[in-house]
Amino acid sequence: MDIKRAKAIIESTREIEVQYNGQSVWLEGINEINSKVEIKNHKSSKVKRYVDVDELIEMK
């Protein structure tokens, strides 16, 4: 995934499935300077972390 697509997913009114390391995650925010995206796991919404945008996979 790239930063442009991550932004579009965050701004979308639809629910778009994204996975990180085989787990479904929500995209919460973007740090464009270092191409990181803040994510939280669907099952454990309290845990947030920043990951490289290219590690995210949009499920179609």
UniProtKB/TrEMBL annotation:
Subcellular location: Spore core
UniProt keywords, alphabetically: Sporulation
Annotated GO CC locations: endospore-forming forespore
Protein's GO biological process: asexual sporulation; sporulation resulting in formation of a cellular spore
Keyword set includes Transmembrane: no
A Pfam family: SspH
Family: Belongs to the SspH family.
UniProt protein name: H-type small acid-soluble spore protein
